[in-house]
Every structure is written in structure tokens, then in C-alpha cells.
Fold this protein.
Amino acid sequence: MTQTTPSLPPISDQEAKLPSKPVVARTGSTPCTEANLKMRELRIVGTHEITNVWEDLAPKVIAILDAKGVNFITMDVLRFGYEDEPSGNPVVWIGVTPNSVSYEVGIDAALQCKELLSENGLDDVEIEIHETERWPKYY
């Protein structure tokens, strides 16, 4: 499979729509535009093949992240959607501490994770690495 490096969507276009920001890296080629100012909603995956294989694939995704030095603090399989619209395809949404992962490291890890998913018949599942913080802070 030939991979091209997706461009990072501008933070103001995409991640301003979620409390967790910014995106470090993501697979997929859907552009984000200023014209789309709706808030994205986090949704359950529901019926999808990833729910049948995730238990076996998750350790492999973790191994890729570990090999790349991506110390994640959250990993969720979910869908994004917009109010009154159907959900999009599933996303493996990986949270990292702010300023801990560069775009270059993040996109390399994301593309390797995407390749693993594709090898397992999950071509419609994307990877998104975003910055987040554990909450609440008790210190």
C-alpha cells in the first residue's frame, strides 16, 4: 500500500471544535474548512468490525506507539459526528500529553497504526493523535 503523508489540519479549523486540542497528527484526507463551524460530537462506535478485533489489535497499536516513543495517556475507539447528522467512520483517538509528540513522530506512528488496521480489513478506520491532559490535577 502506498502511503502519503496527510497534511495536518489547521487547529483553528478542526480542533477548536473540541475541548481537547490540538491535533498532533491524523490519517485520512478529509479537509477541514472554516465553512464547517459545527461542533463535533464524540459518539460510540456501535456496530463495526473493529469491535470484534480490537482486543487483539490494541496491544499491537500500543507496541507501535511504544516503539515510536509516543507515551499515550488515553486511547479510545469512537466516532465523530455533527448534531442532527449521521456519525462518521470509526477513529482510534489517541491522547498524548501536550508538547510531548512532534508532528513528524506523530504522523509516523499514526501511519503505521493505520497500516496495521488496513492489514486487518479496517480500511475505513482512521487514527488521530491529539493533545490532552489528565483531569483533574490534584497537585
